[in-house]
Amino acid sequence: MNYLKELESEAIYIIREVAAQFEHAAILFSCGKDSITISHLARKAFFPAAIPFPLVHIDTGHNFPEVLVFRDTFVQELGAKLIVGSVQEAIDNGEIHEQSGKYASRNTLQTHVLLKTIEQYGFDACIGGARRDEEKARAKERFFSVRNDFGQWDVKRQRPELFDMLNGKIRKSENVRVFPISNWTELDVWNYIKQEKLAIPSIYFSHIRSTFVRDNFIWPVSDFVPLTVDEKADIRQVRFRTVGDMSCTAAIESSASTVDEIIHETENAQTSERGARIDDKWSEAAMELRKVQGYF
Amino acid sequence: MKQVLRIAITGNVDDGKSTLIGRLLYETKSLPADKVEDLIRVSKRRGFDSPDFSLLTDGLLAEREQGITIDVAHVYFQTPQRKFIVADTPGHEQYTRNMVTGASTSNVALILIDARNGSLLQTYRHFFISHILRLSTVFVCVNKMDLVDYSETRFGEIVDSLFSFAQRLGFPSEKLIFVPLSASLGDNITTISQNMSWYKGKPILELLETLDIESSRNAQLFRFQVQHVLRSKLPEYHDYRGYAGKIASGKISVGDAVTILPSQFTTNISGIDFAGTEVQSAQAGESVSIRLEKDLDLSRGDMIVKENDLPTISRTVEARVCWLNERPAKLRSRYLLQHGVRRILAKIDQVKSVIHPELLEEKQDSESLSLNDIGDTIITTATELFYDPYEKNKSTGAFILIDESTNDTVAVGVII
Lengths: 296, 416
Fold this sequence. Notes:
The structure holds 2 protein chains of 2 kinds. By secondary structure, chain A is an alpha/beta fold. Chain A is built from 8 helices and 10 strands.
């Protein structure tokens, strides 16, 4: 079997297991290419039946505007229900507090809102688009990753996953994070997007943008990140390899304006996909520490 | 056609497992520059002069602090020929659980040996696990050949010792391939080493790229478990009832006569859909939705097989079980047995013997199985299992046991 078909069949199998083993599952939808891929796979997994899960977007309020526009169109075409968990609302209610300083970001604040949304809707399984090749802590993830009632990941007590048998049995108040495209690489996702002709937000493609350089990263100029006196905005031709917040996602200089050109660029890339994620550079184990707290 | 090869790599911390993985990533250009820089920076901070490749796969803080691999990590690389999924499995004896886990999802095993030390107890253990899980090929990589002056004699000694072990196990010799290499210097990784002109085989990457993996599952009998029943509210699909699932083995075409288990009703396949598209036939590994001519009532866990190819139907099985949990097995108490997607109550009636893989000795009539033990058992289930011996069919011959009080997956078994 062709490798993309094998990966696709594996992911569809896992997504169907979620529908069969859980009562209230959801797809965590960030508007990024991975969650778009997941949603597309879910549509295929159940067709001609409807996708039996809502999409959940944790909205930090620091989105790229073009991504939000994409989200609404995408969800409508998919015919799925959208649930938005708002970080801004949680700040306004005094549940969490905005960070301050030059590197203020809402990245870690998302965890609170994510866990609150899971609890509020009683989700017992949340499907995410995380991949093991992205990051070293994610390389240790299971397809079915059990979280305790505080949403925490206990790395030392992970269930072994044998053959393709998935054990999603949990106690009430625990939940499971599910990662159907664990075995896909960034390149696999792009090749799949090409094969399936999937629409993706425009920020993945080369465009002209006002940017500035901080700590060797190209930051997008936005209302969320004030420039310091010695920083200067410049127009650059860039694109983004991941969709995160405007306050923690750096751009790369690129002229790739089609999926084919992106595939070519990815094949020859000298930096990794999350190399432009400022949130991963906070410390050596930034991802693991956030995951233990309940992050995606 | 580009295919996936899944590899379980094991070896002791000092056998150079991480170095080999790092080398494969490096040689296939799967390691971007920023990851290499990261690696060098963190290695220096930890007091190493050269890059410590284990940092690539030891992703957890505890692993990095202690310099050991605790959990299976997955690593990916590809060449124009193939996509490789590597399960990096810790080699310590106490991590048999992880070896079994990594091997259960792999096509082949790659066992590393330090040429200076030769086969260790865990080498035999991993070999044994590869054998009972019927991996298609075992590559024994004798690493650090540079430290034994690329000695053909030394290599021959190691080959002989494992070869006789393989014979005692009944492991087919044509599925056992020995490669002398140096992961740190790059000998026999992508090109044939000039230092070992006596080696007449191929470099390891070429072996992995050219190994025949055209699934033997296609040649086996058709086995399909219903995972989920699909019904549609769309007007044009008003009467649609599709049985969704992944084909475990064999092939199926529209029109084929099939039998449903447990009901034993017979009918014909009226349609097959793959991801929303109608197809005429489908094969092992594909997630499809199957429609039947007769209006029968199937639910999750029911099996569809071809009319004259029934599996074994029984409430008692003999199985080789590996215990994966700190809490030992309790004889005659209830567990949940998961066979594919089907769960039924089961109990272990008897542990006939516990096997010491290193010595191939058996201890008779044990009262229990402890963490990492491998034993032959008799298991009884509450209702009938539809299975094939594991040797004949990996998908329908394996199961896991779940402890209902903790929900943990506590054991894995292969039916004899």
